[in-house]
User: What shape does this take?
Amino acid sequence: MGVIMNTLITSLKSLLLGLCLAQVLSAGDKPNILYIFTDDQSDRTVSSYERSLPWVNTPNIDQLAASGVRFKSAYTGSWCMPSRATFLTGHLQYGVESMSMEGQYPSSSYDPEQCPFWMRTFKEAGYTTAQIGKWHTGVDAGYGRDWDFQIVWNRPRHPENSGAYYSDQMLSFNGGEPVMTPGYTTDNYTEWAVEYLEGKGRDPDKPWLLWMCYGATHGPFTPADRHKDTIPEDTEVPKPVDLFPPRPGKPEYVKNRAGYRRGENGTAYVQNRPGNGWEHQEGVITYQETAQGLDDAVGTLVETLKATGQLENTMIIYTSDQGFAWGQHGFQHKVAPYDANIASPFIVSYPGFVPEGKVSSTPIGGHDLVPTLFHYAGVDLPWKMHGRNLAPLLENPEEPSDHSVLLAFTGRTYGSDTSKLPKGVDSHADVPWWVSYRVHEYKYIMNLIEGEVEELYNLERDPDELHNLALDPGHADVLSRLRKAAIAEMVRTDCPFVDKIPLKRM
Assistant: This one.
């Protein structure tokens, strides 16, 4: 009876909040939206997150979390391009139609008629839209169609400049011919964003959506001059317990992975990935110093909103395209389905609508953000989205929830082209296609290779994902339940390969 009463009370609260929101929006007071989207930033780099090391210090991002809701577990994507495609379309990678990789990496393309971006709908609803920074989703960056204002580093259009993450970028300003632009990119983007927030390049009578796409903390990890060597080189950086093999219970591509080589006196050196040749401790410290520029940016943007009187009517979202592993399970990159590789910070602040200083333990996905933005903007969804509106979680972040997250990695393949599963490990980072499903404390991983093990982890008891419970007969019921739930979610989201899953245990 108590559970039913609590459910009714929660439903009534959500209804009342929704009615209040509708009244506000009907008065034409739609929120501005500032979406800060970083690159390869693990939640370990943010000091308010549980997995951060004691010496990590990000006061501005922490203050943003103190003004809103911080999600402990967020899965925005598996790597750069699909996470961005998911935000632009509201679909998981296997639902992004016509997207393809072609030519010199990272060149890519899509058909805007088959793959429309929802920003057009926001424009039709009265918003002015803007994007600043990294673009990694097709040569066509959408200026004039999807964006009213754009300063873009279009990596697919300029593969020869695609490694220039921190200086000397080829930038196009509002559809113009690209020009070589000097300066530290994190600071450049922030400076242009400040000008936009102050009114440059936008209609002052319209609400705005600004997507800030920073390149930090992507490799080659490069701190701003003011942050170089600010973390002492003898700072303690613990090495993951499974930095080197063996890794029992893991699938074959993980068991003997050699992302690091042993050095003398307990040192370990990166092999073949960003930071190649760096000692583990040196790499982690430089990575964190690079993240300090992002913390500065958050402070500057929030102060600008305050100074311009816009903070009270601005929804701020801070997250990354995915995380980044530093030796966990032998990895030194993203892509794999473990939290060390892909878990990112996820913070939402919106005065008056989202409570302050709350933490939600409910896992969420990047695709959940899109219907959430439509909800708070009071705009009807233009098509079926894969995610679910996070408003109930944002408004009641500490209440238990059955909200679940499905995520899929299909290499460099998108949309209906994923209907044919590869026979082995995908060439992209030597990781097989996989599907993960997270609900409550459990994560289930389906490795899409015939005969490969499934994975099941209890992240409350085993946050480092070291003990594969799928191999434990005592967890057979949990494994079966989560496998069925994952398949049901694949069906709900029209997964092209759901009927080709190589699982004989079903």
The two ends are 36 Å apart (CA to CA). The domain at 30-232+269-397 is CATH 3.40.720.10 (Alkaline Phosphatase, subunit A). Residues 1-27 have pLDDT under 50 and may be disordered. The first helix runs from residue 2 to 26.
